[in-house]
Amino acid sequence: MELVTTHVHTTFCNHAYGSVRQMVDAGAAAGVTTMAITEHYPLTHRFDPTERVSMRQWRLSEYFQAIEQARAAHPDMEVLVGCELDWLGSTDDRGLTPQDFDRFEIVLGSVHYIDGWGIDDRDHQEHWEEVGVDHLWRRYFELWCEAATSDWPFTVMSHPDLVKKYGHVPSFDARPLYEQAAEAAAAGGVMVEVNTSGAHYACREMFPCPDFLRALCRAGVPCTVGTDAHEVGHVVRGVEEAYRLMWEAGYRTVTVPQRDGSRREIALG
Q1: Residues 210-258 pLDDT 10s
Q2: In this structure, are strands 32-40 and 78-86 parallel, antiparallel, or unpaired?
Q3: Which of 17, 101, 159, 254 would staple 231 via disulfide (CB 3.0–4.6 Å)?
Q4: SS3 category, 130
C-alpha cells in the first residue's frame, strides 16, 4: 500500500538527526510517495533560549533550497515544503503575517506551549504537579480549539492530544474534550494528523487516541498520517499501523495534502 508521511524534521531544527536530503532519500527507498518536510518554524529567544527547539530565521532560504534540491533528486516523489507552526495564543511575540507563509505548501499547527510553559520540556515537568493535570488538559484543549478555528494558515493540526505525551492523564472523562476538538477542526476546515511517534513515548499510543480519532471521524474531519521523524530510521515508522487505527476508527481513506493546496485520497483496507 502507498506510504505517506506529512511530518518530518531535519537537522535544521537543531534537535533532529538527518539532513533534508537524507530524509527524502530514506523515504524514497521505503516507497514513500508523498513526504512533507515540516521544520519547526522559528521561535523567539523567549521560547527557544538555547536555540534547540526551532529553526533559525536566517536559515529559511537555505531550508527552501535544500528541499528544492532533494525534490529535484526524486522527481517521482512529491515532496512538500512545510513547517510546524506553534500556536502560542496571547503569549505569541513573533508578529507574524500571512506573507510569512507564502512559500510553504503545508503548515502544521501545534500546541507545545500552555501559557508560556512547554508541555514537553523535560526540565520543567514539575509544572504538572504545581498547576494540576486536570487544569492543564482543559487548557490545552482550549488552546487547541482556538488554533483549529483561527485564521492562521494551518493545513493540518499535528499530534492533537500531545498533552498526554509523558503519561499524564486527567481524573475526568476526556471524551467531551475530544468531541469539542473534533467540532473545532471541522469548523476550521483543517485536517488532523495521526502521528505515529506517540507510540514511542510514555503515553504508549499514537496521537490521537482511539476515542479522539473516532470523534474526528464522526465529525467528518479528514486525517492524514505523519511520523514526526527526527532521524532517518523513523521516516516511515508506524505508518501502516496508523492506517489500521484509522480503519478501526471508521475511516476508509487517508487524506494526502498536495503541493498545489488540493487533497487526494488513498483507500484504506
Answers
A1: 999 999 999 999 999 999 999 999 999 999 999 999 999 999 999 999 9
A2: parallel
A3: 17
A4: helix
